[in-house]
Amino acid sequence: MNAREAKNIIKAAYKCGFRSFDTAFSYNTDSLLYSALKEIGIKTEEVEIFEKIMPYKSMERRLEASLRALKRDDVDFLILHWPSSDGNIYESLKAAEKAKEEGKARSIGLSNFPLPLFRKYSLDFDIDANEYYSSPVLFNERIEGVLNLKYGIFSFGTLLKDGIPEDGRKNLYFYSRDAYPKFMDLKNTLLEIAESHGTGIKSILYSFAAYDCPERIIIGAGKAEHLHDYTDAGLSEDEYSLILSKSRDLSVYNGTDNIFCHDWRAV
């Protein structure tokens, strides 16, 4: 996707009513967001921005770069993007706390932090938001008392495609020999529920994500028309429980609590 296509999606999202944008220094999307909003006559101060930065020692410098690109004095939420080494997390949270004190971030949060790790750092820091990956292949519960942001509802397309992909995703745990039958059982259940509602699997996955009422659901779109794929089918309690049961049957084969990082459950 080129810059023009990306900006067109941002502008279409704004026109559809989206007023919160999740961006990241590592995505190199801050300047795109600023430029797209400027083209429709909107300042970045008029939307809510969640800025994600990896927990590196250079976090302060990266935040400054993001603020310059966004043409803002602050961001609504400064989010630590991924858990890395324990020392980097602590030092980065100190930097985030400092940014909040200096008025460069109104709130701070964590992204992709498993519950035990989130609780650990909540003892020393006032964390305002939890951005977490949630789908039937890696389900995490919301955290009370903070703003819950849910993403990854389509599981990087794995639940939307037939067969095992040929790229790096084929190494994900649910494509292993023992887990794959459980994965297909989950997928077939989703398709059956979608058929009973007269809708598609995307609508059911979105409804599953929305069921526990997160404050925000973060969605991605490769084309402007994909913005309209996110509709709530209104799952019943029994349907939600059935999907959750199939998800837990599958999760038995997952050796980690975080697809992209090591197992933090021992922390």
Written description of the protein model:
The chain has 267 residues and is an alpha/beta fold. The chain is 39% helix and 13% strand. The chain contains eight helices and seven strands. It has helices at residues 3-16, 30-39, 59-70, 86-101, 115-122, 180-197, 201-210, 237-251, and strands at 20-24, 48-53, 75-80, 105-111, 129-133, 147-151, 216-217. It has a seven-stranded parallel β-sheet. Helix 1 (3-16) packs across helix 2 (30-39) and helix 6 crosses helix 7 (201-210). The chain is globular and about 50 Å long. The model has no long low-confidence stretch (mean pLDDT 88).
Task: Please sum up the structure shown.
This protein is α/β, with parallel strands linked by helices.
Helices, strands, pairings?
Elements: H1 3-16, E1 20-24, H2 30-39, E2 48-53, H3 59-70, E3 75-80, H4 86-101, E4 105-111, H5 115-122, E5 129-133, E6 147-151, H6 180-197, H7 201-210, E7 216-217, H8 237-251
Parallel strand pairs: 1-2, 2-3, 3-4, 4-5, 5-6, 6-7
Helix pairs in contact: 1-2, 2-3, 6-7, 6-8
Strand percentage, roughly? 5-15%
Mean pLDDT: 88
- Strand count: 7
Please list the strands of the largest sheet in the order they lie side by side: 1-2-3-4-5-6-7
Unreliable stretches (pLDDT < 50, length at least 5) are: none
Question: Could you describe the largest sheet, including whether it forms a barrel?
Answer: 7 strands, parallel
Continuous helix count: 8
Coarse structural class: alpha/beta
Task: Write the element-wise H/E pattern from the N-terminal end onward.
Answer: HEHEHEHEHEEHHEH
- Radius of gyration, rounded? 19 Å
Whole-Å distance between the termini?
Answer: 39 Å
Shape: globular
Percent in helix? 25-40%
